[in-house]
Structure formats: structure tokens, C-alpha cells
Amino acid sequence: MPMKTLMTALLLGTATLGQAAQIDPYGYKLPPSMQPKKKAPAAAKKKGPPPVDYVGEFVNFGDWKEVRSFLDEVATRDGFERAELNTLMGQVRYLDSAVQLVKPAPPGKPKNWQAYSRLIVDPVRIDNGVKFWNDNRDALERAEALYGIPAEILVGIIGVETVYGRNTGRFRVVDALTTLAFSYPEAPQRAERMAFFRGELEATLLFARQNGIDPLSLRGSFAGAIGMPQFMPSSVMKYAVDFDGSGKIDLLNSSGDAIGSVAAFLAAHGWQRELGGPLVYAASVSPNRAWEAMTNQGLSAKYRAPELAAAGVTTAVPVPEQQNYGLVDLQNGAEPTEYWLANNNFFAITQYNRSYFYAMSVVELGRAVRLARGGL
Questions:
Q1: Distance CA 245, CA 128 (A)
Q2: Whose CA is closest to 202, among 228, 227, 182, 222?
Q3: Exposure of 52 by Cβ count < 10 A (0-12 exposed, 13-18 middle, 19+ buried)?
Q4: Is the pLDDT reported for residue 24 higher than 90?
Q5: What percent of the chain has pLDDT over 90?
Q6: Beta bridge partners of 171
Q7: What is the value of pTM for the model shown?
Q8: Cα separation, 360 vs 356, whole angstroms
Q9: What residues are paired with 325 via a beta bridge?
Q10: Is residue 13 within a helix (H) or strand (E), and if so which, with residue range?
């Protein structure tokens, strides 16, 4: 049956039969907006942001030995006036809320993909995604032509990150980065994480100087991510582009710059425009568990379809044999784990956020918005 005919049948089936979870040939469930449901009240009250300490506490970072050493290095390496750095550091605040938010999750809580997915692929993001796509159709088409990234993936990422600019963060970036660079909580790889945030703090100072802005004016997430696409400052420096032709890069207010910058990031992190087709295929695994060694193999596609089939991995539809795949396992708490074959473009998304759940939510949200717009 042709794809368009099959998808149309599925959509009609949803409307007429009232089934709870229609599935297309690739194993995707239709998004909530396509399922039978009661219409949400038009005047539903929005929840405000959670209470967090946006002001911070003065701790005089400039007196800390590690901070002084860092500022000496930055002044020498990047040509900053040391006195200016001292003045800046005297205005930085310690954010205990950032420290609490980066702490590892309590052990023992099982991962649950379906619960996570329900929080991300929700009617609010889908509805706002349709509007964002319609409002920015030209920029999305131009980004796809230039970088090879489909519109639905760009829409999916920006929707997952900030609900299309609605939740870009209210922390002062310098406060968050300084706190995490020098007071990261006890955790595995603490030293490496502190080094990472020191690099991001330096990138923030360079970005602010390059663009003639006060570094204290930058707002972002508790981890220092900025704008609609939530780029860390070093990614802003490396991958952000002036896609709307305004003469400046504005990831907070320019949808065009956000779209072009996300596309540039993915193109630089392994996206292959020639692959085409779905990024993931729903898979079944055999009871003999010969396939088990193919899970947890990192963020890359390593296996050809015949290898996977020989190990007991099957798909409902044939997959292109010339591509490599990774076997992705999405745990569902006490319910059965979902398995998917993912190609290299799926793993390019994990370079944006190193999580199978994240990449899959991008795929599903983008697809849900495309279907809600009437695409097949």
C-alpha cells in the first residue's frame, strides 16, 4: 500500500474507531493531538515558573584562589584587563539553585521513556510547533536546503529545548557558570565538569566582548545555556549564525538565527543529508538475547541490518541495508523496554544532548508537529 494511502487510513482509523494508540509502518504512535480526546478548556491557566533563587548570594568569588588563578589565565590568554575582571567578579552571585539542579538524580529510580515522552510530546508543544513552523516556513526551507536538516528536526529541537522561545531561562549566565565552574557539587567526574564550565565562562566573556554587551545582561538556563536553542556559550561562538541577515546573532529573539544555528550545529556534528528516510525504525528482539551485546555501544551507529538480523533484531518494514544502525533501548520502568534501530542522523542529535530519550523526543515531537500541520 502506498505510504500516503496507508497514513491516511491510519488517521481515519483514529477518528472513527477511537483506538488508543494507532501505529504507522515505522512503529510510531500517532501524537496526542491526533488521538481521540476531549478539547482542552480554552482559558486553561498557565503554571508559573518553579520558585528558584534568581538573585543569588554574594560570596566574593574574587577572594577564591581558584578564581584568581582562572582570571589571571583569562587576562593573559585573551587580553582582558585584570581590573575589569575583578570588577565583574565582584558583581557575580553564587546560585545554590544551580548547584541543586545539576545534582545527579537519586539512585534506584527506573527510567521511563513513555512518561518522559508524555511530558515532551504534549499538546502545548505541538500547537506552538505548528505556529512556529508556519511563521518560519521560509527560514526552515532555507536551512534544509543549505544544511540538509529537515524542518521537522529543527522544529523538534527548538520545541524540546524552550517551547519555541517560551522558556529560555531567567538565570544570569555568568552567575550560573561561575557557580558551577568553582562550586560544582560532589559527583562523578566533578573535576571534568568544573573544567567544562570554566571553559564556558571564558567563552561567555569573549562573546560579550565581541558583541559589545554587558556579560551580566545575558540570561539563560541554570547551566548557562542561551536562547531558543539553548546553546552553551562555546557553541554560540562556534556554530551560531546570522541567518536572518540582521547583521548580528540573536538566539533569544530571532527565530531565523535559532533555526540556522541549530542546523549549522547538526551539520557540523555528523548529520548526513544523503541518508534520507526515517531516522529510527521500531524493532523487535528475539528471546535468545544474542542482540544484547549490541546495546549500550555509545552514541554511534555501528551495525549493518544483516548483522542485527543475525542477532535476532527484526523490523516491521525493510531498512536500507547500506546504512549503519545502533540498537537503541528505551526503558519503560516496569513495562517492557522499547527497541529501535537508529541511523547516524539520530546519533547526530545526541551530540546536541547525549541522551537517547532526548533524541527520540526530538524525532517524535517534530513528527507530531508535521502531522498536525497536515503533512504525511
A1: 25
A2: 182
A3: middle
A4: no
A5: 77
A6: 220
A7: 0.84
A8: 6
A9: 303
A10: helix 3-17
